[in-house]
Amino acid sequence: MSNIKKSIIGYFLFFLTIAFNAGLAVFLYSLIKDKDDLYVAVFLLFFIAYSSILCIVIDIIRRKFTVDKPVREIREATNKMAKGNFNIKLIPTLGHSNLNTYDLIKMDLNTLALELSKNEVLKTDFISNVSHEIKTPLAVIQNYAKVLESNDLDEQTRLKYLDSLQAACRKLSNLVTNILKLNKLENQDIIPEYKEFNLSESIINRILSFESLIENKNIELICDVEEDIVIYSEESYLEIIWNNLISNAIKFTDNNGTITIMLKKIGTDIIFTIKDSGCGIDAETGKHIFDKFYQGDTSHSKEGNGLGLALVKKVIDALGGKISIESEIGVGTTFVVELKEK
Questions:
Q1: 174, 269, 277, 336: most buried, per Cβ within 10 A?
Q2: 179 phi, psi to nearest 5 deg
Q3: C-alpha 163: how far from its chain's center?
Q4: Which has the closest alpha carbon to 137: 161, 172, 162, 166?
């Protein structure tokens, strides 16, 4: 039932109440009109008082159930939410099929509480994961720094420990950098600086920056990059995508494996594809691959912090693009990024 129909029915019932009292007054007056004037006056005074009290009582009862009760429930719910308790479930006064304005507010509050509870869980998990990820490299740094204080270490062992210290520092630095980038993207503190540039050259330069890592694992690199593809976008944003996807492909591809990188332009769509012959992931891992700190293959967790793909997804969303993944255990993984020319 619409709010207009309910308002009309409410006004009609109010009209019937007034009409009944007015009719009763006329009927009783016709019975006593021939009596003493004082008697008639006193009777009418009491009848007016009775009618006023009746209307007030009816209005109080009406307000108690249609206004005071839902307003009290809404205030209690908002007070709970203000204190961080999002476990609320307000029930419509007139049922789900007959919602009034207060019921609509209740439904909105239920939705708000549900979303806030999800955000609270994500926030708690995020803080927990950040704390864990920071503690690990800090513990490595602390332990190796203490060992390096010893004068009994030979030069080869000392250099090995120094390499481990540098790796831990790099991991900590990358973690902090990625957290800051994610935070800025999520809070929209970064204002993209769009410009035209040669995307083909940009990707080739990114690939060349990983040349030593590719050679160290003797990976066969197959590149099919269409020349002189120009895009109007934020170059530093796109470098985040290429850096993470290429480094991931190298990380998960075994020695003597294969990585294929393709860049094509179809109409106004620009398609970037990167395929590796690595370990692959299962369907369940694929559902969470873009979640913060999620690492499906824990055997490689020491090489990352689970923020790379989450950052890639945020960047692509910010640029209005799309990313998809296809993977098969033991066969490899393919990421496809779709961007607009402008």
A1: 277
A2: -65, -45
A3: 38
A4: 172
